[in-house]
Design goal:
Shape: globular
Distance between the termini: 30 Å
Strand content: 5-15%
Strand order of the largest sheet: 4-3-5-2-1-6
Number of helices: 13
Order of helices and strands: HEEHEHHHHHEHHHHHEHE
Number of strands: 6
Structural class: alpha/beta
Amino acid sequence: MTITKRLLAPVGAFLALGSTSAEARAPQVARPALWEVSDPDTRIYLFGTIHLLPQDLKWRTPAFDSAVSAAQQLVVETIVDQQNPQSIAAAEASLGFKQGLPPIAQRVPPAKLAKLRAAIAKSGAPEKVFDQMKTWLAAITLLSLQFKDMGLHGKDGPEEILRQQFLSAHKPIGELETNTEQFGYFDRMSEKAQRELLEGALEPQGSTDKEFGGMLSSWSKGDVNGIAVTFNRELSQSSEIRKLLLQQRNANWARWIEKRMAEPGTVLLAVGAGHLAGSDSVVEKLKTDGYKVRRVQ
């Protein structure tokens, strides 16, 4: 499901670690970046996440836990309920299928047809089911198989851990986008851009594993410049995907933050780290609009 692979994340199961070779490289302790935007009666913490993480990585710090304790509400990109996936299934059904599409085999270059058919066979679903999927949903579905092979589990991601903590504390949880709205960004892509995603989903697992290692290293060190490079490199190759999945959403989220600043209280906003790094980031948009964004970790 979660991007280019990085941005298929929440809706599919974003990159995390599972293979033995990757685990050998994984850091044991992380200090991910955390920011604060505040005025006399409002404080919003901005926490950049990797949607799934190695199970044993220690990423919580005293500064982060202090922010969590102070927060009266958690807000995430979209709520992915691991126990009740009906919302995502309904969004898939409403947006991701269409009659009369070209067969899925015609939507990849001939040189990648064997990889496509091998991935479809591994899914256990007949190829005719993929024929009825829009190309973006086929990409998400096949990429999720790689995540499964890498031993990825949604329960290990920061958003799910935080969601359970806020539920236990009876604190409200909000979302910036509904499941349907998030799928809608993919659905609005041109067929050309969707096919780029599908080809990316057929890359060998080894390249996915290596890519994740770089992202995890930058995230663990709170290296925002490194995050901007590793999370956004592929997006520079497609202006359409960059505009839809990064620039447009970042602008929407910055407006949400600015509107929320008019209300008192403390909020923890947890979104993919790539959205908080780089020249198009939520952080930079807030600064441009005159807000002081303070790095607290």
